[in-house]
Amino acid sequence: MADRQSAVQPTEISAVKDRILSLDFFRGLTMFLLIGESTLLYEHLRDPGLAGTVLHAVGMQLDHHPWAGLRFWDLVQPFFMFIVGAALAFSVAKREERGDSRSRITKHVVVRSLVLLLLGWALYCIGPGRITFRFQNVLAQLAVTYPIAYFLMRRRPRTQIAWSFGLILLTEVIYRVFWVPGYNQPFVPDHNFGSWVDMLISGELSAGHWVSFNAVPTAAHTIWGVLAGQWLLSGRPPRKKIAVLAGLGAGAVAAGFALTAVSPMIKRICTSSFVVAGGGFCLLMLAFSYWLIDVLKLQKWAVFLNIVGINSLFIYLFTESGGTSWITRLVQPFTMGLLGWTGELPAEIVTSLAAWAVLWSMCGWLYRRKIVVKI
Fold first, then answer.
1. How far apart are CA 256 and CA 225, in angstroms?
2. pLDDT band at 129, cuts 50/70/90?
3. I need a surface site. Which of 161, 192, 342, 356 has the fewest CB within 10 A?
């Protein structure tokens, strides 16, 4: 029974009343970057015509590494999974503080997970026009990691950490010992255990070598997010909170890169080195956000990003279901008509920026009317 003791003591939950704005900032930055991708801006920046420029270098970092390696864009999904875990810690603490029973909270978590799964599956059905069971997108992955993190969060931190590394180790072992011919090459695209699972549940492989089984090892990111949220809820001084988050983050990044000696860093199948290093970057980003927003109080300008983060579910569903394409068609006649003389690529970049501005404005409209789309 002692192992189930909450990591956040009742005397420490008073902080729930004061919203941790750094989480809104972190989520807002992540979502702002995600909707930017939907406008094809990053693809335009990677155009060969810009090769050798700073813009091209930025564009390359805003794309996933083709296989073994790490780019900034590989961290965006871990950021989101981590933020959801941190927000879960605050949400549960707040509901407990107002008197909600554990069974009521659990029911909400289970229902939310099922809805996330259905929405994730629905997005995969839009393109082919048929039912497709896949888990590669953020919503479907969260449907797995969210309940795992929730049912572990009342255990001691060391138990949560043990479970997270257990899932990483389990994944590493399965990939290495899997025996089915054609799928027993752990670090070869489309010839590994994750690819076999996809063939089993959906009958097809992902075009980008992504695998549904990623939901298992990346549950660590959501678990670590819960632990980070519980740490921020504690009564420790802000400096100590930042020091611990930053220290653990730096150590995890170093450990992740050290692990590449035995396990290549592959985001597309979430190898152990990637999960550990990705978690380290999440902790570092949270430490920076907390220092910047909640300690230095540089909050006014962060509202620009918070506007997107508050309605993250709405804008994610809108962009992933193809909404950005019709916005682009709406603004394109104006941008191309006014700037077509500058050349096709500059005009396309401006078109993407204009579409991005419209997407932000949609979130701004909801924000001003205090409308939040959530489950």
1. 17
2. low
3. 342
